[in-house]
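Data availability (excerpt). All sequences and predicted token strings are deposited with the supplementary files. A representative entry, Beta-galactosidase, is shown inline so that the format can be inspected without opening the archive.
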Amino acid sequence: MHLGGFWLAGPLLAASALAAATPDTHQNSARQTTKYAPKQPPLTTPWTDLVGTDPWPEYPRPQLQRSKWKNLNGIWQYQDAGSLNAVQNPPFGQALANEVLVPSCLESGLSGIQGKGMYYSWFRTNFTVPRSWTNQSVLLNFGAVDYEATVFINGKQAGFHRGGYFHFAVDAAEYVKLGADNELLVFVHDPTDTGDAVIPIGKQKIVPSHIFYTPCSGIWQSVWIESAPRNHIARLDLDANMDGEVTVHVHSSSGTSTPVEVTVFDGDDEVATHKGTSESAFRFTVPDVSLWSPDSPTLYNVTVRMGADEIQSYTGFRTISKGEVDGVVRPLLNGEFTFMFGTLDQGYWPDGLYTAPTREAMVYDLKVLKGLGFNMLRKHIKVEPALFYRACDELGLLVIQDMPSLRPLESILPNAEQQKEFQRQLELLVTQFKSFPSIITWIIYNEGWGQLIDGYPEFALTDRVKQLDPNRLVDATSGWVDHGAGDFSDNHHYANPQCGSPFYSLSSSPFDPTRIGIQGEFGGIGHNVSIEQSSLWNDQTAINGINQTYEIDDTLEIWNYRSHILLSELEDQTRRFSCSGGVWTQTTDVEGEVNGLMTYDRRVKRLLWLSGDNVPDVFEQLPGHNYKSRKPTLSLARKCE
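Structure token line:
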């Protein structure tokens, strides 16, 4: 079936089986449900105790925002379903075994479950729909569920979705009762890396090991309902460039051409209005715009009306391209070379795993990076909630966005069906996130993980991404297995950089001067902290893997000394060769990886960038750069403020 634009055909139950299995939805068994209480994770953060039972109250989708909505986050019921066949016998009207916090990863302490092997799960809650929503669509939205979700409303199957990183919605109007309790039941299947499963999982692993971490199963992003007209705006594509041109494509739920009006605001001042129709892109120009950049992240509010539907959105005027500067192929932001300098940002939390404990916690990481002088982050084989990218838009942080990778084993590569599914989810990534101004580049493959050896599929995938989004650059293969596709010559080398240079260590990723040279990963130097310091992930398997870090420095003084050397090498390669950016590994420690700028709990910063001249400023070595950074100073660690 195809509902809300993001649904995939799945295992629908026969109507007769559903009827036989469907009691009165208000009937409850005598089962005693274990009350919710967070479990003690191996490590906490300053926000762990602030989560409460009403998490993430913010409207979750900032680029398509409606005024009539209701947050379903909070305490739900959960129980282990036992097998895939359990979906054929839903526990309608029955209390489940445990209470669980939604959103959360079932493996996390914040969930109240903190389980292992969470392959098959039932989630249950009740919700009411206001009577005023009569004769409207009632859109039930899920920010993300890992991995497959089968949704039942009042004893009827309402839809199925596959893919652990993407928003999906179903029009629940035909299933709900207005002004009364409605039962929502969700069956989740998450195979992660078991058996012959080859699915986008990023760094998740059932048995974590060093650079692979605890998995995340279940409803890990927000759930909400909203009211919209029967024919409503299902998707909005926005792009605004440095010339003031705005390109709009409104996708309606009916798929029929409908009049649309778009109004752009600078603060409270209306600066442009244009009329077009849905189902086809149209363009208009806003005069005298202020451009979006890391130094000046100016955003414009946008109102879109289609019939009785009205949504709020926003955009930023900027152009991403590439071109030659002094004979070297460079990334260009608003027509000027911008050296991209940032961190590998994995988005893991010791208390919530994939789910940050609060929005404040999530934004804290970004503010730290901005304060340290970075202008970019590489979101590493994970996709964040939409509010993350809104924060990057507001702060002025460029985002290089990875597609979550398949399994990293060369012995377990995708078959034809699995490769087709990988492409489908890659297309979801691009279509759902391409309107965020901060995202400048898509990465398809990381270090060859899940990358087919025969046929070089990255060429066709690059073409497909550029068809869907012609306004960004594509890094087809970040590190290791580069056949020449995409806009970047991307090398990974630890600990020392080899960026845009005529020397390299892997023959599979030679430097190509016809593309942009970037150091997709480097650094990764470690500094161990102890349990006594309360900043180490207290898991013995992870602790045993610490010695697999590329380099461990005994003291913070040595760690800062080595950081100084590596950053100076990157600066030298920027001046001498064709280096256009670097990605330092990494923002924070993650479980047994102790090589972050901050510890995993965010309580200790290892590196401070303050005013001074101790480290050469890589940004000022190049003509035509447009990113004004402060000169950094390497300093000793201190407690985060």
